[in-house]
């Protein structure tokens, strides 16, 4: 916390001010990033809080340099600082974002994705909830805006509403506020595990944050909106995402608990998934000529289980997944 002083007649009144840095990682999506920054520029700044933004481009050759960076920020009131991380990989970019945020001596750091737009009261609600519930991490919901409807067989991973202040043990990085103590060298000094280059690095980070004793809460009305391009809801991409999530989830357990313990858990689980997945796929395929929609649901349910089962085995072997090599949106 910092103190600023103001004279008021006979008495000197001083106010506690704080710095809050919003970190955004981006790669080859300049239009989405500009929309994200424009939404952040419309934020209602919490009282006695200085807001700024750090943007980390995760690409060998950065797009936002010189004139392009000036063009993107010239219409914004909030200060924006650009950084570059040439090593491709989400945990590399996120760690660079944390280091960049720390350069500005923050009290709080917020994380949002480049394909998202924040509601004007987003930061205000996250910060107020942390103060109300004495929490160091606040995670909010994402409202997804689909360019094209997802297939009827796809079950969207929506979080159920929970009362604000509900304690949580893990969180993603697409809508989260963290106390800088968690990442400062004189605090917990936590960073994203750079071995998790193909997913689950955010879940892992916040599981370790919780294990270190930080209180984490849910804030049910601190919304951001995420644009879902049509390319992300093709059958190939949806199945690839399921495979990636299962791969990274298993590899995470390998890193934390060892390959032997992970194998005891995932080999039986992946075997069940693949056996039942194969049966469901076959039955669904046979059912489709007679009841197309029901048959397709069963068919793709089976394929998803096959993707999860094979992904678990892939993760046990430590084999990387290439889901994030493809960039959706622009």
Please, could you describe this protein's structure?
InterPro entries: Glyco_trans_2-like, Glycosyltransf_2, Nucleotide-diphossugar_trans. Residues 22-175 form the Glycosyltransferase 2-like domain. This is Mycofactocin system glycosyltransferase. The chain has helices spanning 30-41, 67-73, 90-102, 122-132, 201-211, 235-257, 259-287, 292-316; strands at 2-8, 11-26, 49-58, 80-85, 108-113, 116-118, 137-139, 142-146, 175-179, 216-218, 224-228. The chain has 330 residues and is α/β, with parallel strands linked by helices. Strand 3 (49-58), helix 2 (67-73) and strand 4 (80-85) form a beta-alpha-beta unit. The radius of gyration is 22 Å and the shape is globular. The relative contact order is 0.13. Mean pLDDT is 90; it is low at 1-15.
Key phrases:
disordered N terminus; three-stranded mixed beta sheet; 11 strands; single chain; 2 domains; globular; 330 residues; eight-stranded mixed beta sheet
